[in-house]
Amino acid sequence: MGLAVKDRLRAKLKGGDTTVRILLAHPMDTGRANNEQGELIPAHFIQDIRCWRNKEEILTIKCGTATSRNPYFSFVLAGGASGDTIMIRWVDNLGAKGKVETKVQ
Asked: Domains in the chain, start-ordered, CATH in brackets?
């Protein structure tokens, strides 16, 4: 079951390499903050992000409570071609999952 939010993914061929940008919509609660009533907000954060290019897993990112709300990541993959499929999947500490994919432009 994923969160009812929209993640964004862009992939662009630049100088023969693929630049990937990801914006994940997630609260990334640390488990140390209090709500307006003074109650502790339980930890809720993305733990694992994985990236595939054309069904080949090529990158894993491990996150924790120090990662900001709605995290943004940008990275460059060696090589690539216009039309390649880039897919991102993430899993948080409560078992929620997200998946987004795009074509390289």
From this structure: 8-29+42-103 (2.60.40.10)
